[in-house]
Specification:
The complex is a heterodimer. Chain A has 11 helices and 10 strands. By secondary structure, chain A is α/β, with parallel strands linked by helices. Chain A has 3 domains: 152 residues, Rossmann fold (3-Layer(aba) Sandwich); 68 residues, no CATH class; 36 residues, no CATH class. In chain A, β4 and β5 form a beta hairpin. Chain B folds into 2 domains: 142 residues, no CATH class; 82 residues, no CATH class. Helix content of chain B is 71%, strand content 3%. Chain B has 10 helices and 2 strands. A two-stranded antiparallel sheet of chain B has the order 1-2. Classes of the chains: A alpha/beta, B mainly alpha. At the A-B interface, α2 of A face α7 and α9 of B.
Amino acid sequence: MTAKIEIENLSHIYDEKTPFARVALDDINFSIQTGEFLGVIGHTGSGKSTFIQHLNGLLKPTSGRILLDGHDIHSDKSLLKSVRQRIGLVFQYPEHQLFESTIYGDVAFGPTNMDLSADEVDARVKDALQLVGLSEDVYEKSPFELSGGQKRRAAIAGVLAMKPEVLILDEPTAGLDPVGKDAILNQIAEMHKVVGNTIILVSHNMEDVSRLADRIVVMAKSKIILSGIPTEVFSQPERLTAVGLAAPPIATLMDLLRKKGLNLPSGIFTIETAADALEGIIG
Amino acid sequence: MARIVIGQYYPAPSVIHRLDARVKLVGTMFFIVTLFIAGTWAGYGVAALALAGVIYLSKVPPMFMFRGLRAMLFILIFTASLNLFLTPGEVVLVEFFFIRVTLEGVSHAGQIALRLIILIVGSTVMTLTTTPIQLTDAIETLLNPFKKLRIPVHEIAMMMTIALRFIPTLMEEVDKIMKAQMARGADFDTGGLIKRAKSLIPLLIPLFVSAFRRADELAQAMDARCYRGDVNRTKMKIMRFAPRDFLASGILIIYGAILIFIGRMG
């Protein structure tokens, strides 16, 4: 695998040189590989939202560089527009940004801004809506007629329609009920399998992230404090609890059972895999 | 994102910050009125000196005071140049086609510019050292007598408080929506007038939707806490005059007397 995005010595200070100055990112060095599914975990205020807004050039680093396929994204101003098309960012509560009178029109906003042909825009809109599981009968509906979960999916489709090489999702399941939450996470996983794009999922929910991500980054106090595959990260519960996070409950349970002498394999974070493993022992 | 200085409180532990908001509000108005009485270089000099003293006491970096001037720069230059070229006078300094600059014009333009600068900086001092909530509270108490005339003073003050309270929230919201639409390729900075106006639609519609949603939520929350205007309402922070407030009022009166005296002399 090659590095898709490289982050070099990235620091960001909000309201620099005023009494409100606040360090949001402190000397971050990291690379994101092509095609990987990366989970970013951290508490509110840990800097994760600031971090992802740097990746597509919405925020300019106070110091440091961001390289996309080896090119500094701030080297040329005209480059930014294409960077934002190649790195799609879905913000928290993305349904709040819907503005068109129809779902179709709203999803078409991104690709239309890319100066594509009408046919290509149409194809992309339909593809994107299909990917998020919205059927043709919502195309002409107003965003206000949809349920919360449907609105959220329509908003995600709005970014997907730009066919970004990297898709960043900031808390895509915040405020949804368990059914809507599962539906969105499953669709993201499915899409990653089908399209094979690079995905960065930001969340403070360990369980969601551990279920999907190949690799996890833990942020706290403006820094990356841990990174690695889920098993590695969850095997250091002390370091997680020190920053107010915890391994998924299932992982903790498996750990306890292992200490009690049960012969369980590592890397179990979900109810399903745990049930299978326990069944193998009991059954 | 550019910060707007008016209405932007700068926290600092100073005497000026601790002054009663009513004193600051009435004092600022008084100060502005004295500027119009002054009318001579000496008068403006005293006003500038007094203002400098207050700025020093407020412990707010002077840089913040002058930031408010930037927005007014055009008006400042416009009024000053009007006065510069259009004041008739005896001593002509420059004469070039229809342009005539007189000594009186230069002096007048200088005074007008100085008066405007002192006026803007003076009111900025108040907004920098007083939180918007303190300010509306002061306005409410000062307007209390009008309640007898059945003017809904409390309601007006509450509306002002809410409006002020939500300015930063809405600014944050604008920032967020702008970024979200920029992530979808929206372009807010280039193109002609019509294109720019059109590019605001994806920003304004979600902003209005969210403003209405917030208003609804706030109304519900207030209702749930049995808010019913100012009937039998008590205050957590009661404004009371402290010795420093009497002292400040005294200084202001002395300052006003000095200015009037100078005006008479000149």
